Amino acid sequence: MENPKKKTLGRRKIEIKKIEKKSSLQVAFTKRRGGLFRKASELTVVCGVEVAILVKSPADKLHSFGHPPGVEALISRAEEKIVGGMEQYLKFLEDFGGKVEEKDNFLIVYLLMMKIEEGLLPSSPIDHLHILGA
Amino acid sequence: MENPKKKTLGRRKIEIKKIEKKSSLQVAFTKRRGGLFRKASELTVVCGVEVAILVKSPADKLHSFGHPPGVEALISRAEEKIVGGMEQYLKFLEDFGGKVEEKDNFLIVYLLMMKIEEGLLPSSPIDHLHILGA
DNA sequence: ATCTCTATGATTAGTAT
DNA sequence: GATACTAATCATAGAGA
Fold first, then answer.
1. Residue B8, CA: closest nucleotide via C1'?
2. d(CA A15, CA A21)
3. What is the pLDDT along chain B (134 residues), one digit of tens a residue?
4. Does the keyword Ribosomal protein apply (chains A, B) (predicted)?
5. Helices (DSSP H) in chain A: which residue ranges?
6. Are B54 and A52 within 8 A, CB to CB?
């Protein structure tokens, strides 16, 4: 039998421009975010590199990806010290300061991002400055 | 003529594990980083969202991607204020503090990352704390 | 290091659940 | 919000220039 009524049209070519239909945009966002994070994950493995990604959803929710084993270790180490609040946090930064190499700025910033995202840190560096009397 | 000696074998299936051969890894990294950034770019357009990516190359060089028009505007605005060094920078953060909404943490962090990457800011937040007498 | 080449493997648009 | 389906579009491995 010819043309056995295809169930779907398959992938269609699209123009890269903003999707207006809300429901379609939501589906596209979920798929493409997943695709992006998967690609990032493959990159970390295949090339043995560090990657951090932040994406804000159409609903302003923050989604993040990160994978260096080093970053994960830092986050774990930080976790215990940070949950204690601001004082613990400042102490953590000081401890951290003595051990981190120049090239690890990347990791520090990533760590801070994650903590901010989780609501465990003040919302911006500005708060620190004020607290410290700047 | 059958089998006109195919020029390439086409894409081959690979296992997702670290490539050991250095030259292959370098090529794969360049291609996959490009692919990742292209996907990110499409995501920002198709879904109208904000994305920031940091990747450390096998040679420890930092590559970044970012695209919200808002972020670009912030960076421009910041540029003038930041090039003056630490004092200007602190002042910038204070100015910034009065104007930025809670949901803009993302942008702030992204901005800081970019500045650190460019060597325009101290290497870590720790330095601020010390300077401010923490 | 970057750029073809290209067959093949991988992703995803549109729709329904 | 995420997942399943499927055909078509898209990305890229491996090799060479």
1. C6
2. 14
3. 444 567 889 999 999 999 999 999 999 999 999 999 999 999 999 999 877 777 778 886 767 777 754 434 433 433 333 334 444 444 444 444 433 333 334 444 444 544 444 444 444 433 333 322 22
4. no
5. 22-47, 69-82, 86-99, 105-117, 125-131
6. yes
Rounded to whole angstroms, how far apart are CA atoms B55 and B66? 12
- So what's the pLDDT on residue A32? 94
One-letter-per-residue 3-state SS of chain B: CCCCCCCCCCCCCCCCCCCCCHHHHHHHHHHHHHHHHHHHHHHHHHHCCEEEEEEECCCCCEEEEECCHHHHHHHHHHHHHHCCCHHHHHHHHHHHHHHCCHHHHHHHHHHHHHHHHCCCCCCCHHHHHHHCCC
Residue A131 in contact with partner chain B when CB distance is under 8 A: no
Q: In terms of DSSP bridges, do strands A50-56 and A62-66 run parallel, antiparallel, or are they unpaired? A: antiparallel
Strand D: which nucleotides have any atom within 7 A of a protein Cβ? Answer: 1-16
Indicate the residue type of A49.
Answer: V
B6: closest CA of chain A, how far (Å): 28
Residue B85: φ, ψ to 5°: 100, -165
The candidate with the shortest Cα–Cα distance to B61, out of A22, A8, A120, A47, is: A47
Amino acid type, A118: E
C-alpha to C-alpha distance for B110 and B51, rounded to whole angstroms: 10
Compute the distance between CA of residue A82 and CA of residue A134 in angstroms, rounded to an integer. Answer: 22
Determine the residue type at A44.
T
B39/A101: higher pLDDT: B39
Nearest to B36 among A18, A40, A113 (CB): A40
